[in-house]
Design brief:
single chain, alpha+beta, Alpha-Beta Plaits, 3 domains, globular, FAD-binding PCMH-type domain-containing protein, FAD-bd_PCMH-like_sf
Length: about 400
């Protein structure tokens, strides 16, 4: 397969223009760590952003960072950490889940709206994304947004590109708002709760005024023999001491809560963020979003129909499932279980044949599908970017 690796935006625009002239369909790629995410794209060549690398803007006082799309995420995170700052939304590293190599890139974070456990507090990646540059399906370089948050009328291209999985254009540069890193991070751990009771505890913590930045539940057998319910707090040391004490009182009816910090706390949240309990297996992996109070009921309904392993993030509103990859990998069962509660299911990992046959993303209602096709046609009229990556025929 032909590989294009432009080193500048104008070179990328020329590659796209030539591909349009030939009718050549392009797979867009950053660090290549998530090639198994989404439907298998129907492409004939790869357009890589790997050489579009380097930080282009960093203003610590304004808490803004911008970089070319192929810049390694680790490079940006190290730069921010050196000034006591961070990306707010705690992006997932999919390498363990997919068994992939390479380096995740900042552009890919924007392209898939990559957001981890801190989303419940700081919002998703798209909420911090304030500027993009990209090449559309006509080979034109487009700039949208800038260094500050703005009210937008009309089509907000910045938010539109976040989560489009490269189906609308090749991101060449992205700009994010950042936040200060916390002086101290601690996790309250409750032990031995069943799923429903654990989610009650998480909701009680989230409903308190003590500002959780993580709320997850690992049932027995997931990262340990006993169930653990995790509530993370961050901030100044004195604030942590006070909030931990108050949260213990709020959660008293759920049992005694241990307080952990340092490497042990970090390792637990990395496991939740990266779904590492499901790494290294042949199971299909699903990511379900629903109301937090419905998470345990949805999991129980699926568990009655087929064997599955499960854990919860976002206070129970994000349910990670691992189940057999045979047949439809549980698609019909999982989506039927979700219907009474609302929400959507994404097939994160499965063999190519399954991802080609089963809707990977929740099938949208026809009015929304028509809108999706219209937006695709407006930005990529010949359909050369990641064809079929999100929906068949789009």
């Amino acid at each position: 397969m032909r590989l294009y690796e432009p080193g500048a935006e104008n070179e990328a625009a020329a590659v796209v223009a030539e591909a349009v002239a030939r009718g050549e369909r392009l797979r867009l790629e950053g660090g290549g760590t998530r090639s198994g995410l989404g439907r298998p794209a129907q492409d004939e060549a790869t357009l890589s952003a790997r050489r579009l690398s380097g930080v282009t803007l960093y203003e610590p006082a304004e808490m803004v960072v911008g970089a070319r799309a192929g810049t390694p995420l680790a490079e940006v995170q190290a730069l921010l950490a050196g000034r006591g700052q961070m990306l707010p939304f705690e992006p997932v590293d999919h390498r363990a889940l997919f068994g992939s190599k390479g380096e995740p890139t900042l552009g890919a974070v924007a392209a898939i709206n990559n957001s981890g456990p801190r989303r419940i507090n700081a919002g998703a990646a798209r909420d911090s994304l304030i500027g993009v540059r990209f090449v559309n399906g006509r080979g034109e370089a487009i700039k949208s947004g800038g260094r500050v948050m703005k009210n937008v009328t009309g089509l907000d291209l910045v938010k539109l590109m976040a989560g489009a999985y490269g189906t609308l254009g090749l991101l060449t540069e992205v700009t994010f708002k950042v936040l200060p890193r916390a002086e101290r991070v601690a996790t309250l751990v409750l032990h031995g709760l069943d799923d429903a009771r654990a989610i009650e505890a998480l909701c009680a913590g989230l409903g308190s005024p003590f500002e959780l930045t993580g709320a997850a539940h690992l049932p027995a057998g997931i990262e340990g023999d006993a169930a653990r319910t995790l509530l993370r707090i961050e901030g100044f040391s004195a604030s942590i001491d006070y909030r931990a004490g108050e949260l213990r009182r709020v959660l008293k009816r759920y049992g005694a809560a241990d307080l952990i910090e340092g490497e042990l706390s970090e390792a637990l949240w990395q496991a939740v963020r990266d779904a590492t309990p499901f790494a290294g297996t042949s199971e299909a992996v699903w990511r379900l979003s629903t109301a937090p109070t419905s998470g345990a009921a949805v999991a129980a309904a699926i568990g009655q129909a087929r064997p599955a392993r499960v854990f919860y993030d976002w206070g129970g509103g994000l349910v990670w499932f691992a189940t057999g990859a045979e047949g439809d990998a549980g698609a019909e069962t999982i989506r039927e279980a979700l219907k009474p509660h609302g929400g959507h299911a994404t097939l994160v990992r499965a063999p190519d044949a399954v991802r080609a046959a089963v809707p990977v993303f929740e099938p949208p209602a026809e009015p929304l599908m028509r809108l999706t096709r219209g937006i695709k046609a407006a930005h990529d009229p010949l359909g050369i970017f990641n064809p079929g990556r999100m929906y068949a025929g789009v």
